[in-house]
Structure formats: structure tokens, C-alpha cells
Amino acid sequence: MLNRLSTKWMLSGFLMIIIVLFSLSACSDSKSSGQSDSQVKGGAVVYRDTLNVAIASEATSYDTHRDQGNSPKMVGDGQVFEKLVTLNAAGEVVPELAESWTVSPDGREITFYLRKGVKFHDGTELTAIDAATSMNRWIRYFGIATTLAKEARFVEVDRYTLKINLPNPAAAFVDILAGAAQPATVTTAASNENLDVNGFWKEYIGTGPYKFVEWVQNQYILLEKFDDYVPYGDPDVLADGKAGYKYGFLKKIYYWYVPDPITRVMGLETGQYDAIFALSVDDEDRVKNNPDLEVVPALNGIAYMQVNKKQGPLKDVNLRKAINYMLNNEDLLLAQMGTHYVLDSSYMNRPQYWYSTAGSQYYNQQDLVKAREYLAKSNYRGEPIRINSSNAMATVLQRQLIDFGLNAQLIAGDSAASSSIAPDPSKWELTIGTQVIHPIPVIKPFLDANARGWADDETLQNYITEFYAQPTKEEAKAVWDKIQLYCWEEYIPTFLIGHQDNLYAWNKKLEGVVTKEGIFFWNAKIRQ
User: Fold this and answer.
1) Is residue 485 within 8 Å of 362, Cβ to Cβ?
2) Name one GO cellular component term (predicted).
3) Which of 163, 172, 218, 222 could, after both became Cys, cross-link 111 (CB 3.0–4.6 A)?
């Protein structure tokens, strides 16, 4: 009898231990995926409150409507600011600040219905007036949107509804709102009026999970958790591209401006930084050989050159054709990307619907005979070709141009200096850059008549108008093939270098990072 009771007590005790352990495990799992640092302390995993990130470039402004650089997008898009709609991992348009939207049968009237109860960082509620004034300001500064909207602007229908009546059918307009290179972010109506002497926002007030708290130029940007953030989506799915539920686990995110690549790596090794942008290919093996660190490639669209076609020697299409025939794109990519590139002539990436091989016969030819024929046809007489970039690719480009007999000069200082002269066509001829993956091809800035590069060619712009007028995606794709062929064969709005990954690195204690055309930290956590 005693043995039986002892056995029963032993079994009962064993079961109780199992239940307690299971409960602790479940509690730990819940906290590691959905609670703050203070809540997980004492559990199996302890997370820190603060993340330190080293970035390579600093913007002249973090006004996402106006600044065309990567830094405002990396810091602001999705973290500080949100949009009416955004893109999921498959590149599909999904709601963000909008609960839903409708398009009229004729494709001209687009109506957005806002989520209710969404708060800005200043405590005010998002309304249709805020969204409409933000979208109208964005239309003013984003050339493709200006072209499509013409004089049309968003208007308030009621407190949570806004609409726009476009002059022509433009089903792609919603795609542009979701994925434009200059994000169509929403701020308060007051912020859109509170501008500095250059017309940039004085304050950065969004609806995202992090507030823009402080910017000490040439030092750091500080974001802090917004406690009144109103999330959307499925809380059990942490990320779907740039869409989905955002927890905001971290209390503070510091973006430290560290222009020197080796200093960024050394800071990552010592623990000064938890993640770094723009890992140099020269330092890739060094980071890979550190068991505590991880190299993270993230597809980032294309590497290309902005070409100043407004004034200066490259306004001459024959000179542009000469350079295009001469370029050795693989050497350019190797200098900057290591093995993280693909030689490809398409303006769009695989496996996007818009991927095209049209004009591929003009890409990476390294045909000096043809190049010299077009150089002889040009009006080039030794004028400076100023390269407004200072990376490894720019150095190789300068050498290629000089070897070809052109007067190529590197003029860029740091990223802020480069950005400051970019809007002025009298100051530069070429700028090397990267472009994120766009939802449709014709919104690429180098095809924009008003963006830097100034692609105001009448034939090109007529083709783009034709593209937008197509009733079906299949018919629009046929027009896009014509556009890409025309660009390679006749106009040369850009020198496409190739497709590339951007390299990032972080401590392996970091988790939950979104890698969609960059790295974003709205669901990131870092273990002690």
C-alpha cells in the first residue's frame, strides 16, 4: 500500500514538474516574441532596451517627401512614418494607414478609408486632412506622381475618408503610393506647413512605432519607442515585407553616423555597435570569421549612374552612347560589391513581372571601336566630367573614363556634401547610386523628367504616358519592353551597372530584423 501511494505521489509530482516547466517555457516564448525588456527580465532570455546602429551616410534632411537619398528611407520609412499603403514581401500593395481603398470603374477616382484611432507622435489623431495634405505635398515633389496627377489633388470626404480624381485612368497610382523611391509618408497637416527656409519639414512627426527624438548632425539620430502606437495586421506574423504587425520591442534606437567603413567594423567587433550598414566587401571575410557576427546580404535593386542630361557634356547623347559602349561593368561591380552582384541589363529585378531583356545587346559591351565612333560623333572637347561619388566604384569609373580619353574628376566629399550639390545640374555630371526594388518600372527616378538626371526626352515621356494608359498589365508590359529598348538603343538616360545586394552585418544576438530593401528594426530585439 505504501509503495502504491509512493508511486502515485512520485507520478503526481513528476507531472507537476512537467506542467510547471511547460508553463515557464510557454511564458518565455511569449515574452521573447511579444513583450518588452522589463517584462522578460527574470525569464530564460533577457533583452536589452537600446540598439546601436552604425550608418554610412547622413542626409541633409529626413523629409521623406523631398530627399531622394537612402538614409531618410532607412531611418524613417515604416519606423517613424507610415503610408496609406505599403508593399508586402511579394511586392503586392496592402493597407497600412488605410483600412481599405476602392478604384472607380473608369480607373480615375481612388478613395482611401483610414483606420480609426491611429495616433501621431504629438498625440493628435490621424484624419483625412492630415493624409490629404501629406499626399498633396508628396505629389508636388515626386515627379512621376506630378505627371500622373497633373492638377488633381486629394480632398477630404469625411473625417476618415479621402479621395483623388485623376485626369486619366492610372491603376498603377496606388502601386506608386506604396513603393515610391521618395516614400509617400503621412505626417500632420501642421507639419506640412511648418517648414524651414529651404521648404523642408522642421519636425518629423509620424504614426510609426518609433518617434524621431533627436538629430545631432554628424553624430547620431535617436529614435524612441512610441507607447501609443496603434499596430495593424496579424500579431503572430512579425513581418511580411514592409507590411504587418509592428511590436516596437526596443525602447531606443541610435543611428550613429560613421562614414569610415573600418571604424564601423571595429565598432561591431567591440560591441559598440550592434549592427552596421554598408559593410565593405574588403571586410566581409573578417566579419564572417568572427563567430559572434553575421554578414547579411539584402537584395537592393540595381546599381546605376545618375546622368546629368540637363546641361554639360553628357547632354550629348553621342557621348552617352560612347561611354555606354566603353564601360566594363563587371570591374565596377567587383570594386564595390565583391561577389554580391549579377551582370544584368534589366532595369527591373528577377522575378518581377516587369523583368525585361529588351536592349540587352547594348549592355556591358566593352566595345572600344564602337565607343570611339560615337565619341568622334559627339561634341566633346575635353570638358570635365565630374563624378559626385567617392566610393570604390567611383574610383574605378574615373580610371575607365580617363583611359578612354575623358577628363574625369572625382569631386565628392562625404555623403552630406554629395547630397547638397545633387539638385544643382551645374555642379556634376555623374553620380553612382543604388535603387531599391520598385513595384513598377516607370517610377524609377532616372526616367523622371524632373528628378536628378532630368530625363525630359519627349519620346520617353510619351512612352511613359502610353504605359499608364494601358487597360491591362499585359499590354503595359509590352509598352515597358519598348521603353527599355528605347533607353538602351537611343536615349541612354542612365548607365545601368548591374543588380546588387547591399551588405549589412550584425551581432548574432540581434533578431527580428526586417530585410526588405534595407534593414529595419520595428520588430528587432537584442539579447544581453
Assistant:
1) no
2) ATP-binding cassette (ABC) transporter complex
3) 163
